[in-house]
Amino acid sequence: MNLNDARTFVVAVNEGSFSSAARALGVPKSTVSKRVAELERALGVVLAHRSTRRFVPTPVGREFFARAAAMVALADEAAAVVRGSLAEPSGLVRVTSSLPVAQTWLAPLLPKLALRYPALRVVHHATDRFVDVVREGFDVAIRSHVEPLSDSSLVARKIAFEPFWLVASPSYLAARGSPRTPDELASHDMLLTSPSIERLVLSRVDEPGTTSKARATSAAIVVPVRGRYFADESEMLLAAARAGLGITGIPAKMARADLAARRLRRVLPKHDAGRITTTVLVPERRAELPAVRVLIDAFVEARKADTREPDDTPARPRGR
After folding, report:
1. pLDDT tens digits for range 209-240
2. Residue 273 · residue 146 · CB < 8 Å
3. Of 276, 240, 221, nearest to 167 (Cα)?
4. Is 221 exposed, middle or buried (0-12, 13-18, 19+ CB in 10 A)?
5. In the chain, which end has fewer C-beta atoms inside a 10 angstrom radius, N or C?
6. For the chain, where are the E strands, in sequence order?
């Protein structure tokens, strides 16, 4: 198998068509088609379906792409070392994140980075499915999670902690009353992520100036709750809260616009309903590349503006 043919296939999948791949590689469209066909002959399988506008990998093509992307990245890394080009952020960096992360802060951030570093090429993949970072050839993954991430060989850096706030619409609170204590949540309609949730764990917000570490150790308050509506996507829960269906817990950043516009009001403002952690995950072999480092540094700076200060204690390989 020719490595350059594998590279051509990877670029064609990323670009979505022979024409776009040809522009990205700086070669004629016929060359891209010829190299992919030669790769298929060498492997003895059909790797993609072609049309006049689309290039779509077959199931076996998707499996090959996941491994070939990692292989090409390793080859690029080796070549970069030989060329002595590691001093400047350059080359292709593949980033994956959830849809909310992509929409709320990567969308404005990544174009700024691309403008600042002309030799840097960024591919972003937004999905809420589980992504095997190494197997699918990604350089950086951003995870927002409530529970600790599972152990893995990835290098992990926690870059932000953010509280969940309880919110509801003014119309709901006018009709049902606003809870004055956590125990009163039991008599209210809750908007939750799953029907299996039967209780919430709240923590009291300490006085201003208290560190996030101290807040994290506040005594937990466990309260029973009754779900009225369920959705595993934050915007769906926000929409239900705006409609007056009940009370929901939402990351503070996502709630701020509705609170400022008075479409929602905070419930039990002296309490948080848990917190969400944002972690950057990187394959160990990619962690020291300038292109990857500059992305991680930018992610950290972007999160400092609107989340609590993260715990900078080094987090050694954890999470997928």
Report:
1. 444 443 444 578 999 999 999 998 888 999 99
2. no
3. 240
4. middle
5. N
6. 48-50, 55-57, 91-97, 120-126, 140-145, 155-168, 189-192, 199-204, 220-224, 226-230, 247-251, 265-267, 271-272, 275-282
Residue pair 204/219 in contact by the 8 Å Cβ criterion = yes
- Which residue matches tokens 């709750």? 225
Percent composition of the chain: helix, strand, coil (DSSP 3-state, to 5): 40, 25, 35
8 Å CB contact between 70 and 135 = yes
pTM over 0.85: no
Token pair of 297, please? 């540094």
* CA 124 – CA 77 distance, rounded (Å): 19
Angle at Cα 283 formed by Cα 282 and Cα 288, nearest 5°? 75
pLDDT, position 64? 92
Q: Which residue has the higher pLDDT, 130 or 241?
A: 241
Residues 6+ apart with CB under 8 A from 24: 11, 14, 15
Which CATH class for the 85-320 domain? alpha beta
What does the block give as tokens for 272? Answer: 């948080």
Structure tokens at 46: 């059909």
CA distance 164 to 186: 18
Which are the contacts of 42, defined by CB distance < 8 A and separation ≥ 6?
1, 2, 5
Q: How far apart are CA 311 and CA 299, in angstroms?
A: 15
Domain residue limits, the chain: 1-64, 85-320
Architecture of domain 1-64: Orthogonal Bundle (1.10)
Whether 186 contacts 226, CB under 8 Å:
yes
Percent of the chain with pLDDT over 90: 42
Q: How many angstroms separate the CA atoms of 32 and 17, rounded?
A: 10
Residue 205 makes CB contacts below 8 A (sequence gap 6+) with 163, 215, 218, 269, 270, 271, 272
